[in-house]
Amino acid sequence: MTNSYELFTFLHSLDLLRDSPSWWWPNHGDFEAVIGAILTQNTKWTNVQKSLQNLQSSNLLIFNQNEENLYRLSKSNPSHLAQLITSSGFANQKATRLIKLAQNILKDFGSYHAFTQETDGQWLISQKGIGPETRDTILNYACLRDIMVIDQYTYRLLCLYGYEMQDYEEIQNWITQTICNHFDKIQNLYPFEISLAQLYARFHGKIVEFAKKGFKA
Q1: Which long-range contacts (CB under 8 A, 24 or more apart) does 135-141 make?
Q2: CA distance 145 to 198
Q3: What is the pLDDT of residues 110-156, one digit of tens each?
Q4: Count of CB atoms within 10 A of residue 62's CB?
Q5: Which of 59, 98, 135, 194: CA 20 to 30 A from 32?
Q6: Could you give the CA distance from residue 96 to residue 77 in angstroms, rounded to a whole number?
Q7: Which long-range contacts (CB under 8 A, 24 or more apart) does 90-96 make?
Q8: SS (H, E, C) the chain
Q9: What pTM did the predictor assign?
Q10: 2-7: which pairs have CB atoms within 8 A and are 24 or more residues apart?
Q11: CA distances from residue 35 to 39, 55, 81, 181 in whole angstroms, order as listed
């Protein structure tokens, strides 16, 4: 692989996302994606799914009710929330950070919709417990921005092909620059109209799913 376009077309040929949601991440654009981005830190997605199901069963997370979900979370009892998300690990810490994040979204933006339209990476990175990967996960999957998420699977995949970049932004720039230059050709690979933001979401998803297969075609 000499560039990220070749990497993308290779992964695309494997049809790794056949049964996945259109943006790979479940319920993209919803407040659930923000919660999931925090919960998935240092744990497996299967554990996050259990936590999300508990939140849904307790009516703290109702599909397509983003504003109500945001408000409910901001008023949550930390101990009760921690019990619901125990499967995701570091439950007390994550519960506290989720509640504070919800409160800050309401304080600084007034609504979830305004947050998705107005927030930026600087605001997100200033929030307790949000680093570059979580920041970009929220920007891409919740706010639907043209941002490519870089995670440990990305590092490992590039190492597999002989690239030794360590810096988050260096890897992100290496991927996005070539993808942008070949965006027209990539669009032709899809039977539907795809935005750059959705393309980055699916690219990240392809990398994760490829990693789950042991980086084997």
Answers
A1: 136/172, 137/25, 137/33, 137/37, 137/40, 138/33, 138/34, 138/37, 140/197, 140/200, 140/201, 140/204, 141/23, 141/25, 141/28, 141/29, 141/33, 141/36, 141/37, 141/201
A2: 9
A3: 999 999 999 999 999 999 999 999 999 999 999 999 999 999 999 99
A4: 14
A5: 194
A6: 9
A7: 90/41, 90/42, 93/129, 94/38, 94/39, 94/41, 94/129
A8: CCCHHHHHHHHHHCCCCCCCCCCCCCCCCCHHHHHHHHHCCCCCHHHHHHHHHHHHHCCCCCCCCHHHHHHHHHCCCHHHHHHHCHHHCCHHHHHHHHHHHHHHHHHHHCCHHHHHHHCCHHHHHCCCCCCHHHHHHHHHHHCCCCCCCCCHHHHHHHHHCCCCCCCHHHHHHHHHHHHHHCHHHHHCCCCCCCCHHHHHHHHHHHHHHHHHCCCCC
A9: 0.97
A10: 3/178, 4/174, 4/175, 4/176, 4/177, 4/178, 4/179, 5/178, 5/179, 5/181, 5/182, 5/185, 5/186, 7/157, 7/161, 7/175
A11: 6, 10, 12, 33
What are the pLDDT digits (tens) for 78-96?
Answer: 999 999 999 999 999 999 9
The encoded tokens of residue 24 equal 């790979």
Could you identify the residue written with the tokens 């056949």? 18
- Write out the two tokens for 141: 């999957």
Q: Which two tokens stand for residue 34?
A: 């923000």
- Give dist(CA 153, CA 209) in Å, integer: 9
